[in-house]
Write a structure and sequence with these properties.
- This protein has 410 residues and is an alpha/beta fold.
- It folds into two domains: 215 residues, no CATH class; 85 residues.
- Helices cover 40% and strands 7% of the residues.
- It is built from 13 helices and seven strands.
- Helix 2 runs antiparallel to helix 7.
- The longest helix has 33 residues.
- It starts with 7 loop residues before the first helix and ends in a 21-residue tail after the last helix.
């Protein structure tokens, strides 16, 4: 007896059951399902959609280059700034009206913007801002410390945070995604943190944080990720991020980083310093990230010397000036100390007296030279064509324009 042909209703039922089951598992495994970690998460597509588990650090994120806005278009931006009650922000208030100032007063329980716990220094503030504003970010967010003048601010901008904020090129932030607002490499570049360094090789003066950067710490923060041979990036936890770059890092990872800060038993100052040397890794994927100093100044702030060699010429002259001033200062202090002690006769030798006269003449001459070069660099930076010449680029169409002439080639 021949069997009957399969019934259509049975086939439809099987197919419907298969589709429902497949849909359930896809939604259950989706990296941005709602209420994960107790927070409604964004449905904005990010690089986490490339794999099922955004906390699998063994699969690197693939960051996309950004596009600057059309010329003449304004950027929306915020300044995120941790502070304590005793720190004064009068130097910034009202100076940049186009930027939204987000102040986290970490030791004030009644502050407008709060952190879960005053722990981990500025890292807790930065991560909390990114988590809380993940879905309503401005075009650019600048993360800065509360003091206006500091040794780690840019020398060519008089170590003035206000000058850095006012001159910051948002086009560069949009293109790069992540930009450390400090241009000088030292400390942090080009070869800094080593997790396998023998105990006797630690430099506790220049790198006090390195002893805390052990293999176990890396594996807690980035479980499954390869251990880098070196972690190198410009200090000192002041940087700018584009909206797109923040969202290219899954919010689950930002929550994971903050959870580590909350739970670690590491001393507060060092848990924050741990993050100082991985912000560039988190937002670029590079263990070593040391942009050229002249490029940072030129494209980032419009101070263009005309190439690396000319920038280094300026820097070398500045170092010479600093060395001469150190000698000058030592001689003057020796003379002043003798006067304070009531000694009427000069305590300086003939050679020291002659050296003082020479230094008194040389230092102002070098200062005038340096001032002239800074002025030229600022004027050169007003031209977009000059800024483009010193900008990073993978375009090789004109690369041989910069090579030796044909007659010099073998």
């Amino acid at each position: 007896m021949l069997s009957r042909p399969p019934r259509l209703a049975s086939l439809v039922s099987v197919l419907a059951l298969f589709i429902l089951t497949w849909t359930f598992f896809r939604l259950d495994r989706a990296p941005y399902s709602s209420f994960r970690f107790g927070k409604t998460l964004s449905s904005t597509p990010t690089t986490s959609s490339l794999h099922d588990n955004p906390l699998d650090f063994g699969i690197p994120l693939r960051f996309r280059d950004g596009e600057p806005k059309p010329m003449g278009t304004n950027y929306t931006w915020s300044i995120v700034m941790p502070k304590t009650k005793k720190e004064d922000l009068k130097w910034l208030q009202g100076e940049i009206p186009e930027a939204k100032l987000m102040v986290y007063e970490v030791d004030n329980p009644n502050a407008e913007h709060k952190v879960p716990k005053n722990k981990g220094r500025e890292a807790m503030v930065y991560l909390t801002y990114m988590i809380d504003h993940y879905d309503d970010l401005p075009d650019t967010t600048v993360f800065m410390h509360a003091h206006r003048h500091a040794w780690h601010n840019n020398n060519l901008l008089m170590q003035d945070a206000l000058g850095m904020l006012k001159r910051l090129n948002h086009d560069r932030v949009a293109r790069m995604g992540y930009m450390n607002v400090r241009c000088h490499h030292d400390p942090g570049c080009p070869d800094w943190i080593h997790m396998d360094r023998p105990g006797g090789d630690f430099d506790f003066f220049r790198k006090p944080e390195e002893i805390h950067w052990r293999k176990s710490v890396w594996e807690e923060i980035h479980p499954g990720a390869l251990i880098p041979s070196s972690l190198s990036g410009v200090c000192c936890a002041q940087f700018a991020l584009s909206k797109e770059r923040i969202r290219q890092v899954p919010i689950e990872r930002l929550l994971h980083y903050r959870k580590w800060l909350l739970q670690t038993g590491m001393e507060d100052q060092y848990s924050g310093r741990v993050f100082e040397y991985i912000w560039h890794y988190i937002f670029t994927g590079h263990e070593v990230y040391c942009p050229a100093q002249n490029t940072c100044y030129c494209d980032g702030y419009g101070i263009c010397f005309g190439g690396r060699q000319k920038y280094e010429q300026y820097e070398n002259k500045q170092k010479e000036r600093d060395r001469l001033f150190t000698e000058f200062d030592a001689i003057v202090k020796k003379s002043d100390k003798a006067k304070e002690e009531g000694k009427k006769e000069s305590v300086l030798s003939d050679d020291e007296t002659k050296e003082l006269e020479t230094l008194t003449r040389m230092i102002p001459e070098i200062d005038r030279w340096l001032e002239g070069k800074r002025k030229e660099a600022s004027e050169r930076g007003e031209d977009e064509a000059n800024r483009k010449e010193e900008r990073e680029s993978y375009d090789s169409s004109r690369i041989w324009d910069y090579g030796p002439s044909a007659e010099l080639l073998p």
